Description:
The chain has a 6-stranded mixed beta sheet with strand order 4-3-2-1-6-5, with no helix packed on it.
Amino acid sequence: MPQDPNIFLSLGKVIKDEYGRPIGEVASFAVKPNGGVDAIYIRHSDGRFVKYPAGSIKVEGSDVIFLSKVKYDTSVFCDQIPLIWRKDQALKELLEKKKISPEVYEDLHRSFEGALNQLKSEAQALLERIDKEIERCNQEIRELNYALVHLEVEHEIGEVDDQSYQAAFATIQECLKRANLEKTDLESMKNKLSNILLGEAPPKTVVEEAPTPPSPNLPEPPVIVYVKEAGESGI
């Protein structure tokens, strides 16, 4: 993650996640000899003192935001996997046009294929992490709904006064809003990454290739394109 140029302004400030939940405060930095910040130290609300990469936070005005590593990793995989796939496709086209030798093609193709398989393996592990995060959100939402019901019951029978009820109700509703927003983000990330791993192309390409069912195996699409183009060049 790139380092925020305003990172030093975060020192001593409360840091929140992307959904507004307080995490702790920025306590210090680990600075490189050239002056760049390598890491930050955060004192969490529960007293833990944890070191994170400098790219884990960004400063927006007076707000210091802790960035989700799951969201960042998903973005990286969704960019890199299609990029390598397209490069391997372009390599096949160069071979077909006799602009590179078969030996060079095989060497580079193995390199692209190895990188792609590695990324796919890491992306699959990331999907499992996302699933765990979604389940955490589901559990939080369930507990908040139970808390809301119990609050309503105690207010109904007069154990909780109106002022306390209104304050507690607002707190629970705000927590529910944040948990549902995070869950929606996680589900969107999961769907996007899953489609990439299943070999689905970006929206524009999907429209162009609508007559052909998508393949569940990433290395296969380049073969399909190659056969079509080879047929055209053989006319």
